[in-house]
Amino acid sequence: MAHCRVLFQTAKSVSQPIRFSSTISFIPSKADPALGETAKLNMCQSINNAMHIALENDKSACVFGEDVAFGGVFRCSLGLQDKFGKDRVFNTPLCEQGIAGFGIGLAVAGHTAIAEIQFGDYIFPAYDQIVNEAAKYRYRSGNLFNCGKLTIRATWGAVGHGALYHSQSPEANFTHTPGLKIVVPRGPIQAKGLLLSCINDPNPCIFFEPKVLYRTAVEEVPVKDYTLPLGKAEIVRPGSDATLVAWGTQLHVTWEAAELAKKELGIDCEVIDLQCMAPWDVDTIANSVAKTGRLLVSHEAPVTSGFAAEIAATIQRECFLNLEAPIMRIAGFDTPFPHTHEPFYLPTKWRVFDGIKQMMEY
Amino acid sequence: MIVRRLFWSNVWKRNLRLYSSAVGDDFRLEEFSSKYLGHRKAKFTENLEFIDSGNAEAISIYRATNTAGDFVDPSQDPNLSKDVLVKMYRDMTFLNTMDKILYDSQRQGRISFYMTNFGEEANQIGSAAALESTDLIYGQYRETGVLVWRGFPMQQFMNQCYGNALDYGKGKQMPVHYGSLEHNFVTISSPLTTQMPQAVGSAYAFKREGSKRIVCVYFGDGAASEGDAHAAFNFAATLKVPIVFFCRNNGYAISTPTTEQYGGDGIAGKGPGYGLHTIRVDGNDLFAVYNATKAARNLASQNIPVLIEAMTYRLGHHSTSDDSSAYRSKDEVEQWTAKDYPILRFRSYLEKKGWWSAEDDKAWISEVRKNVLKAFNEAEKVKKLPPEELFNDVYAELTPNLKRQKEELKRHLEKYGKHYPLENFQ
């Protein structure tokens, strides 16, 4: 904990890149005071706390995946096996398609399944089970059977040195499949509330966890059991000149760029955390763009067919008469995620800043 | 420095002692056996010898009766009552008759697709009869007999094939993708083998509930090549779940013969490698299938997962989209039909017992034909669910996006409805 706090302060106070670490500067949020008492938790601990609550509330709930029994390679399931037993928190063989299929089967039998895929990059062997099976279970059976009690957690996003297979952001691979809910939290408060929503939601959910935030992101997280609505975006920084949309780690990058634009150019951007890619909150984004007339969407994943494309297409239809500049997409390039060239691949705050500038000068 | 030197000298002494005696071997054998090999006793050998899988004897095929329907070893007779045996026969012939009618109706273009069960009636009915009705079934698509045994309403087979408004599945899937909550039969899906790891997950849930239910999952020899089969076998063995894996090895996966499907001793040959209790049975011998499944269920109920490989032959085409004469000889099919038709084998047994006759058969088949045709014609007359049904059940609730799209379709049909087959829909 002390160690984490030091890292957090370092990330905040030092602006140049930390060696072998992402340059992300986490901007903490404040929880709704109505949620009561809080505790200082990093994102890893808040996810652990959410699973703790889920296992306590629901005797059928199980947590499983590769190496989760000893606490997980990121320590998210730490202590859960000791508390809830080996039959509820357990390792599986090393096989992602098996993990997803097994989780669907648990959910079909009416049990709550919390499956972990160690890295989002390794979710693809489970793609068939997720896309052809989990997503279509209720529909194809005429609602006789469903696997709504399945939640798949997977780590997600850039981490500074993860290269091709420890950095990917595969959300757009899944948003093209009806039947799934796709969620990415921006920090510990959202992680706990949204994960509990996913676990309780009667639909299969994929919960992507920005791994670079596991330890660097620390917030005052409400202690009690609470949920945050799925399919609802959050305006984290109100503004009037342009709308900026992002999620996960990139929300902080975009937020920083907004502050920079205010400071350097006097431009007042509205920053929105999308939180949920499926279903996504068209109204909040469209209402914001109707007000600002400009939209920039930013994500780490490659630009072509990335989720920003869906947002851009929808908003140009909804807000055609309000738009004063083309919708800007600042995203990863259309390459695999590189190792040594990560600083140039990522949609940094300078690229977002430049995007805002271009959009305003249009 | 002194400390380090002492440490290394101790390690060195200990290593020497291990190296120079049998203690090291014992230690390693104990470690390998108990921790790496699930308590299987391993030993060292100085023979450089590979296991030649081609030389090993194939796993035997368990049978109870011969092709004439006589018990080879009378002790293998499960002594089922006349009522049960006659029901088994009736169900097999019902399935066979329904298959013929629905196959022909597809040929006439009345339903879009069909898959028959010809030649596999005994392995379906025999296994289904050995399970409890509360056991959960996951199937592939050629297990219609299991639903027949469980009393799935005849009308529902037709409703599903037509996708009409009365179909439990609400007309969403292709024909023969049956499912029934009431009959504990999980809805079939087309992607092969996906049901296998799912079946393991459900079995794990039953184990935790202490519900005494087991899961039986059916799959073909081709499906067993999918990665999901590997996942399922391995998860079942490590997580020790109450499951029976039932493989229908019928010699073909569409056009691909088993020689191009696997290089080992069939599907049963894989079982022991995963740590599964394994048996190979004569899939055309209803009694053998029944006995094996009954015993397998008993093991599974003690959280010992079991693999059954039922050897049979796919007498029909793969589906109505397939002409099997393009890849196998007519003679081969005729030989199987003439020499070992599972329904006839079982009928010989019943006839010798005096429990069934040629007249019984004639009357029964004619009754079934009449009933199936009636149900079929009724299903054809029932309209399909309204167009907006297509948006239901994607999610548990209608999302804002789907609400918009539902409205969009409604508006479109108000203007352009005459270009769509609305008359067939409610």
TrEMBL record, chain A:
This is Transketolase-like pyrimidine-binding domain-containing protein. It comes from Panagrolaimus sp. JU765.
From TrEMBL, chain B:
This is 2-oxoisovalerate dehydrogenase subunit alpha. The lineage of its organism: Eukaryota, Metazoa, Ecdysozoa, Nematoda, Chromadorea.
